[in-house]
Structure formats: C-alpha cells, structure tokens
Amino acid sequence: MTTYNQKITDLFHTAKYYGRLDSPLAIRSAKQFAADQDSSVEFLLTIEDLVITNIGYLAKGNPVIIACCEYAARELHNSSIYEMQSFDYTFIADKLELNNNNLHGAILVHETLGIILAEYNKTETSML
Amino acid sequence: MLNIDRYFDYMASTPMDKEVVAAMEPYFDYVGNPHSHHKFGQRGSQAIALAQQQVANCIGAQSPKEIIFTSGATEANNLAIKGVAEFYQHLGKHIITTKTEHSSVSNTIDSLLSADFRVSYVKLDQDGIVDLADLRSKITSETILISIMHVNSEIGVIQPLQEIGRIANEHGILLHTDAAQAVGKIPLNVKKMQLSLASFSGHKAYGPQGIGCLYVNSSPKVRLNPLFAGGGQQYGLRSGTQPVQLIVGLGKAFDLAHDGQHQDYQHAKKLQNRLIEALSFIDNVDIHGSLEYRVPHNLNLTFKNVDIDALLLAMDDFALSTASACVTTKQQGSKVVANIGKDIQSARHTLRISIGRFTTDMAMDDFITMLLAKVSWLRSIAGA
C-alpha cells in the first residue's frame, strides 16, 4: 500500500465537499481526465457577485487527487473569484507538502479550475 | 496493538499458530550445532528429523529424506529451477512455465535465458487455469522442466497438477511446483501428482518466517546442482547449519496443516460464501479467476470506478493487499490479472482479500460492512 503524508490522509478521510450541487443558480463546471484516463476531476461552482458561494467536486482517482480536490473546495468556498486565479498547482503542492510523484493531483485540480475560470472570464466579459 | 480481526492478508503471510510457537519454545535457547555428533548436537538433529517426517507426512512424500530445508519458498524455487537447469542442461535447455508465476519462479527462469535456455509460456484460460492441450503442444525433445504454481498467490486458482504431472511423466520431463499457497488449504500429495520438486514456505502455513523447504523426489531420483558451496549439509544440496528452532516450527505448522486441512477449508469456505453473497449487492464487481477451481481463502476483485489506492486508504484499519505482496507496480498492475485477459484498468485496481484459520465470523461481518460502505463512499466521490 502506498503511504501518504498526514495532510493528504486527513483531507481524504474527512472529505465533505464531494458530490453534485443542488443549486437553483447557474452552475459552472469543468471536467478533466489525467493523461492515463484512469483518473478524472470535475469541479462544480456557483458564483454570485464574484464570490464562490457553493462548490463541489467529483473525483475518480487516488487519495492525492481526492485530497487536492477537497483542499481546493475548502479553500475556495466563499472566496472571491480573484482568489481562485492565484490558486495554482504550486500553491496546492506547497500547502499539502506534495512530492514530485504526487504533483499530478494538484495539476489536475489546477487545470480543471483553470477551465472554469477561463470560461467565466469569457462569459462575464462578453456580457459586459 | 494491532487487532488480528483486521487482518485479511493471509496470502502475504499467516500469523503463527500458538501451537507452533509452543513447539518452538523449548528450542529458543537451543545450544549446539545439529550437525555435531555430541548430545547437544543430537538434540537438534532429532528435532530436525521429526520436522522432516512431519513435512513428509503432510505432503505425501515417500521419505523424510526428500525434504530439504531452505530459507523460504524463494530459495526453494531457485534451488529447484537453477539446480535442475544446471544438472540436466546436457539433455536440453527448454523450460515450460506460465506468465502468472510468483516472481521467485519467473525471475529465476528469466535469469537462465542468458545461459541460452529457452522458455515457453502455457496459455491460461480466462479463469486463470492452464490449457492442457497447449501445454502438450509446447513440449519438445529439449524440454527438461515444467514449473507451474499449484495455488496462485494472487487470484487463488488451483492448477490441475495431477493432469500436468501425468503429461510431464509421459514425456519424461521433471515437474516443479511452487506449492507455498497450497499447504493446509487443499489436500496435498506429491506422489499422486507425480511431482519431481515442490517448494514450500513456513509463514504461508502458520509457521515461522525465514524457513521453507523443497521436496525432491527420490524415486525416480531427481538430481540437482546446489545453489552454493559449503559444508555439504542436507545431502550436499543445501550447505549451512540448519536453524533448529525454525525447522521445528515449520514441522509443527505442517503437522497442524495436515490434521486441520479439512476443518480450515470448511471454515474458509463458509466465510468466502458470506463475502461473495455480500458482494452480490454491489454493482460492477469483477471477481478474478475461477470460482470453481480456487481455494476459499482468497478473493481477488476489481470494483469498477474505485481506485484501489483510495480503497486501501479508506480501509486502512484493515490489512489488505493489491496483489502479491512483493511484485506489483502501479502502472502495470497485477501481472496475473493482466495475463488472464483482463483490461489494464482491472489489473491496476485489484484488491486481494485473503482469510484463514483465525478469521472469525464477526471479523468477516465487520469487514463486509466496511467494504460495502467504503466502495459506496468512493463511488459517491467519483460520481459513479
């Protein structure tokens, strides 16, 4: 069995933000697969007045991927969209003390959130 | 303190039976060399002789002298394969095996390729059972050895060794089996199966770690080159002072395995049935290997949409494994599951559950409850 650091283990065992959102508001979402197609991450967000008012994820993969999703969800819930912009994989890796073998989880989360952010910026700009 | 009720990894290693520990205890402070002729030495050699007899009785050997003690099944496999290859290479350099052997067999055979040996792999059906017609077709005039595991250490299937033995005997080819996972699980008789060589391990049969043995048929006599030089102990096949305490433990373990095999089988069967019934309530579960020709002490599974590392961490209170304790890599997954025609995702995410003599009904019920809950939880996270 692979061993994981305490931060990964704790986030994994106490995961609570997983699942689809049951929200009347428009949900923004994106799904990304890992290169081997074995793992995937999907984030679902509602954004009101530049604030992430609700967030959820679906993660198929190892404990690192689930822990990275959970960490991102906890950090970003009730945060502004601007904070999400600085939420890159190096930040996650640093906070969760990921070694090089486990960076894939942080990268997958970063890429998935990046798609939502890009889409959000595009639609919001076009509305203006 | 670890709780034995959470141990579901018996095929990696079994706990020592208390009766084995009790049998070894008088020898923990053993003084002397069992190869010495004085009384101190004789006390050890007598204990070893009893253990040889106990092992011989358990496996149906004709004589206790057919038992050579080794450091474990890995050494026994090496001694059998390299010993035969070196001694009989003048008759041919062809070996037949399967792609689902333990690494101590497959890597040993691979090591002979540099000495111009050839290896052929027998086809397995989707249940992991050897195709006997294909085995016959692979035999050539150069074939000197067939090596096929008796009970597979990952998926628990039982190979038809009696039929394989008949084929080997018809062609005058030596037959070796790694029977480490068979002792105490199913009836064993090396003579009926016409085995030339069979490898065994102490710690797969409720005995101590660090000890195993090789059965070497004496009639017709199988000749082997030893792996290393030394004082010529054990008929020149395995030099080195024999560890009396460990050998006593192995002998007692095999004695218990012989006497309790039927009871252990029935116990494991009851628990396995309970587990299989519980699994019927989960969708998309793939059980690897024949359900008919397998030991009841093992189930090897893949749960669709469940990452095996996540499941193992979710159930980290329990001792479980993904495949053979000493082989698998994450990328390749289980070579056994991959070689019985399952896809790479199945091979990567296999769960091996193995139970034994000390697994209680209550422990199995707790395990089932936890397994069902965690599979469901991980599928919720995956949105499956």
Describe the structure.
- The complex is a heterodimer of chains A (128) and B (384).
- Chain A has 128 residues and is α+β, with helices and mostly antiparallel strands.
- Chain A has helices at 6-13, 63-76, 81-85, 89-95, 103-127; strands spanning 28-33, 40-48, 51-60.
- The N and C termini of chain A lie far apart (52 Å).
- Chain B has 11 helices and 10 strands.
- In chain B, strands 1-7-6-5-4-2-3 form a 7-stranded mixed β-sheet, sandwiched between helices.
- At the A-B interface, helix 1 and strand 3 of A face helix 8 and helix 11 of B.
Q: Main sheet of chain A? A: 3 strands, antiparallel
Mean pLDDT of chain B: 95
- Arrangement of strands in the largest sheet of chain A: 1-2-3
Report the order of strands and helices of chain B: HHEHEHEHEHEEEHEEHHHEH
Question: Helical segment tally of chain A?
Answer: 5
Give descriptors for this structure.
heterodimer, A: 128 residues, alpha+beta, three-stranded antiparallel β-sheet, 5 helices, B: 384 residues, alpha/beta, seven-stranded mixed β-sheet, 11 helices, 10 strands
